[in-house]
From TrEMBL:
Name by which UniProt lists this protein: RRM domain-containing protein
A molecular function GO annotation: RNA binding
UniProt entry keywords in alphabetical sequence: RNA-binding
Signal peptide: none
Biological source species: Urochloa decumbens
Pfam families cross-referenced by the UniProt entry: Beta-prop_KIB1-4, RRM_1
Tree of life domain: Eukaryota
Domain RRM: 436-506
Gene3D superfamilies per the UniProt record, alphabetical: 3.30.70.330
Coiled-coil zones: none
InterPro entries per the UniProt record, alphabetical: KIB1-4_b-propeller, Nucleotide-bd_a/b_plait_sf, RBD_domain_sf, RRM_dom
Amino acid sequence: MSWADLPPDLLRLIYGRLRETGDFVRFHSTCQAWRDAAPATLPEFLPWLLAPGRDYPSSTAQLRSIFSKTTWCAPRTYGLRKRWLATEDGAGAWLLTSEAGPAPSLRLVDPFTGAAAAVLPPFPAGSRTGGHRGRIPYANGFVLADGAVVLFSIESFHKHGCFVMAAVLRPGDAAWAEGKGILMDCASCGGSIVCAAAYHDGEIVLADVLQVDTVKLRVASGGVLDVIVTPIRKDPPWNCFPRKLQPQPRRIYTFKSRGELLAACLLLDTTKQDGGGAMSVSVYALEPGEGGGGRGDPRWVARDAWSLRDRVLFLGFPASFAVDAARLGGAVSGGCAYFVHNSWEAGVARRKNVPEACRVYRYSFEDGGAAAVEELPTGAGWDNELLITWFAPRPSAIAPVREIRERLLQGPNKQQGAPCATSIIRAPRAAFGPPFTFFVGNLPSGVGSLKLEQFFAGFGEVTDARVKCSFGFVTMAPIGEPDDVFAALDGEYFFGHVLRVKFAEERPEGPFVMPLLAPNKARK
């Protein structure tokens, strides 16, 4: 009996057990008989990890399956800027790209196919673009079920406070509505605002280790966006641990599951010696106030292991989500949470000489243990847990069999996102231009020369990177034109701070003025 002669019932049984997107594509491309036997309903696929890559146009995002140990390239999108946007339910993603030019344009791109789904109006002149045409001035965002796009950023303005800035584009609107509000007591880690976000009941819910805020966005007359910030609770239950005792809350992940808003708190005991500390995850649900009609202050109530026994949590930034274990066909058992943890981000590597590495962990709510599942590849965006998120692939259609066979015969095409069996994909070596030097200002505290070099390496070949007196000095040979690299770097977000970049031959102004090298040397 040949493969094409397998009974349809057996083929449907095999099809029902497919949980990897790559296996699903191979099943359809085997032969016409297999394709005809496949049900019309798509199975639930196992999530991938997404490393978005750099904002430079030649940077390619990578998608990693920790279950099959395989990495794919996302279709390459050419644009000066890009932002990954979560869907309202947290289980998908969109890519917002920006192209500079006389008429800067914004596009929503399907990251699975690379096709542009919508062309959006540019940001208003004089907004937070800082005079750079084509810049995307917001770090995070959502695409809602009705097609509305919500963008926001959180930026510190003093030790215990920060701004939240937002923009909304509703279906049919010809222009963005922008506004801002003030958050107090924002927590930070190495200069980065560590704040999880979820869209729930018309509000952005921001949670960090100090407090929880709701941000109501209301588009008033004239296209003005009112940003109303209301603290839910200034002492959430995950902040009740004494500051000098272990473990301590390290990350908060917010997401919706079965109609309720959940917050998962990653607790880390840095006194342990296992290269990442003893980790645990606690889950809380936001319940309405106890007053009549749900009035009163909402409160967070802990969820026990039994209530999570049939769910799998995938925790990441900027979005997290939960999946019913039954929908995964037994590929993953319920009652667990997957998350990415970086020893450098937790401060363990710096204090205990632990090698820096991002690892994927699986935490069991039943026995309270966390085990490392995989150590992620180095570089290519896999070295910062705040940039790594989970992505649920949902192919909407399968190409004709002839087209699939032609692609397989041609071999993997990195730019088109074809599957690749290697554990890490490297782009072809680019041609570098002549070297030059950047001044880099507004660096977050605690960031050293190595982190600065790794960040700039996505834009060219770095020959020297130093951090002195909170300023950075980077000498590099760029990929492409220096002006394009400058436009991509100046105003870019780096661990929660907006970088200020200048060419070495330019004299910085204002707070960017360099300190004198010698006390008796007059300023020119």
